[in-house]
Amino acid sequence: MRKLHKKPLIMATAALALTGTLAVGSAMAYFTTYSTAGGGVKMNMGFTETVPYEKVDEKGKHVTIKNTGDYDCFVRVKAFAPMELTYTADPDKWEAKNDGYWHYKEVLPAKELTSTELNISYKFPEGKDKPEEFNIVVIQECTPVLYDENGNPYADWNHVITTETTEDSKTTE
Questions:
Q1: Domain residue ranges in the chain
Q2: Which of 162, 170, 142 shows the shortest CA–CA distance to 63?
Q3: Residue 6 pLDDT
Q4: Is-contact 160 120, C-beta < 8 A?
Q5: Residue range 141-165, pLDDT digits in tens
């Protein structure tokens, strides 16, 4: 009888040992499996950059903007000086808005120049208040072209790129 009593105990021990080895194998695989990756790829996503070109004469500044970047953009211009400034431009291309800027109405394609000038003229004050030297500081901003759900282009002026120039700035080639 003693032989029959030992067989179930041996069988239970063997079953428990086999089950335990299955769990240990999975746990060991979990703790020893790993992977690594290396290398890299340099990506150039491009950028939008604009450059103002100015001609200065006795009538004031004549400003055009060139998009030297990789993407189309919208541009706007504002000027500051210690005297009264007057802006004139082609009304089909430039528009004064309530934000104090003159906006170029069309999308400015990459590598292109605005088709018309924005003319900024000045008027000296009367009397002895006339300055001997002065600067007209031109601020121009650009923003990438965005498109609405219907495919129409629009400008987001909360995301701008600014360029500031002074009297000694670039002149048109």
A1: 1-33, 50-165
A2: 170
A3: 66
A4: no
A5: 999 999 999 999 999 998 876 655 5
**The predicted structure's pLDDT at residue 47:** 80
Instruction: Report which residue type is found at 83.
Output: M
Q: In what order do the strands lie in the sheet with 84-89?
A: 50-57, 60-67, 118-123, 84-89
**pLDDT, position 15:** 74
pLDDT, tens digit (0-9, with 9 covering 90-100), for 20-77: 666 665 666 666 656 677 777 776 667 888 999 999 988 889 999 999 999 999 999 9
Give the Cα separation of 102 and 114 in Å (integer): 13
Outline where DSSP puts E strands in 1-109. 50-57, 60-67, 73-80, 84-89, 94-96, 102-104
Which CATH topology does 50-165 take?
Immunoglobulin-like (2.60.40)
CA distance 173 to 170: 9
Half-sphere exposure of 147 (CA within 13 A, CB side): 5
Contacts of 102 (CB under 8 A, 6+ apart): 76, 77, 78, 87, 89, 94, 95, 96, 118
